[in-house]
């Protein structure tokens, strides 16, 4: 089975919202998609997916910042899809102050249906996915790895030649560097990285050219 990945960039922070749609070997589309970080317009995203006869099977969150979660309520309400998140992000998802939604005048809380553990492997829409805890951008940030297709949804942990900011609540530069080196750079170099902002990259490219993960960890 091959994999098709689409995305929409939305919101004041230009957040990449990715959706993963499997394809059978004969090319027939599977109708269900997995949606990662529905930015701030869940209703719009559902409408566009429905126009292509696609249904949201699950909503997966990489972390709890407002620009990744404001669209969750509308998407869940319109689709009935369950919300998945790493268990280390409970504080941010429940606090409009910590997740920064209060600061933009749109207080938001999210209560996931499923709390994942670090290293947990789970099945959704015919895909095997691993939750990788990557604290640093926030203490409960995580990435989602689809090994069969060498796909990594990195959220705001790893960007092309950069890393996520660590000056927000619960952030830590030493932790994000350690997470990338110890959790992500051990993946195959040809894994494609789908970040929460900016352009796609790969593990191999970032190991060579990302200046934020060179040198000693402070």
Describe the protein in words.
The strands form 3 sheets. Strands 1-2-3-4-5-6 form a 6-stranded mixed beta sheet. Helix 1 (42-51) crosses helix 3. The model has no long low-confidence stretch (mean pLDDT 94). It contains 6 helices and 14 strands. By secondary structure, it is an alpha/beta fold. The longest helix is centred in the C-terminal third of the chain and has 12 residues, at 173-184. Helices cover 21% and strands 33% of the residues.
What share of residues are in beta strands? 25-35%
Helix coverage percent of residues? 10-25%
Tally of helical runs? 6
Q: Which ranges are low-confidence, i.e. pLDDT below 50, for 5 or more consecutive residues?
A: none
Question: What number is the mean pLDDT?
Answer: 94
Distance between the termini: 43 Å
Give the biggest sheet. Answer: 6 strands, mixed
| Strand ordering within the main sheet | 1-2-3-4-5-6
The general outline is globular
- Rg on CA atoms, Å: 16 Å
Element string (H = helix, E = strand): EEEHEHHEHEEEEEEEHEEH
How would you classify the helix and strand content by structural class?
A: alpha/beta
Count of individual beta strands: 14
Secondary structure layout plus pairing:
Blueprint: E1 2-10, E2 15-23, E3 29-36, H1 42-51, E4 55-60, H2 66-69, H3 72-79, E5 82-86, H4 90-94, E6 114-116, E7 121-124, E8 127-133, E9 142-146, E10 151-155, E11 158-159, E12 162-163, H5 173-184, E13 192-195, E14 201-202, H6 203-209
Parallel strand pairs: 3-4, 4-5, 5-6, 10-13
Antiparallel strand pairs: 1-2, 2-3, 7-8, 8-9, 9-10, 11-12, 13-14
